[in-house]
Amino acid sequence: MAEQTRYEELIRQFSAFGAVKREIGRMMPSECPSGSAAVLTLLGRYGDMRMSRLSELLAVDMSVTSRHVAHVAARGWIERSPDPADKRSRILRLTPAGQALLDQLSRRTCQLLAERLSDWSDDEVTQLTALMARLRASFDDTRAHGPEPRPPVPPVLEQTTRTPATTQ
């Protein structure tokens, strides 16, 4: 029974992450919803890629990815060019405007996290980050098995912040 109680508390804490994501979402510019920010973040982290790869990394259906891509392309944040290896496919890449927006979003997110985690030690933040990465890998998330990322770019949507310990 102790094991079940431990996992029930874990489930309650998972639900608290929704509040964290909503708060991060509220600080996003209205023209950049979370799906668009995720596209920019992944292109910033992994570099140019096909839409099929982006769909895998987002862990959503290709039709959802297409809508996100259309949104960011219409705003000039990414460009789609023919794939030299397969002219039927498109390669997605950040434009300078997309990179500038991604940099702005990353700064905002990092500032929010720095404020909310100001009473956390560096070791605690590092430990949380490592545990979240391990959890994601335990669920065989494609992002955990993707190509080697570029040098670290602070993720916009996968940030963490503290949540009050509650016993709901």
TrEMBL record:
Residues 158-168 have a biased composition (Polar residues). Residues 140-168 are annotated as: Disordered. One of its GO terms (biological process) is response to stress. The lineage of its organism: Bacteria, Bacillati, Actinomycetota, Actinomycetes, Kitasatosporales. This is MarR family transcriptional regulator. PANTHER family: MARR-FAMILY TRANSCRIPTIONAL REGULATOR (PTHR33164:SF57), TRANSCRIPTIONAL REGULATOR, MARR FAMILY (PTHR33164). SUPFAM superfamilies: Winged helix' DNA-binding domain. It comes from the Bacteria. InterPro entries: HTH_MarR-typ, MarR/SlyA-like, WH-like_DNA-bd_sf, WH_DNA-bd_sf. GO terms for molecular function: DNA-binding transcription factor activity. Residues 1-137 form the HTH marR-type domain.
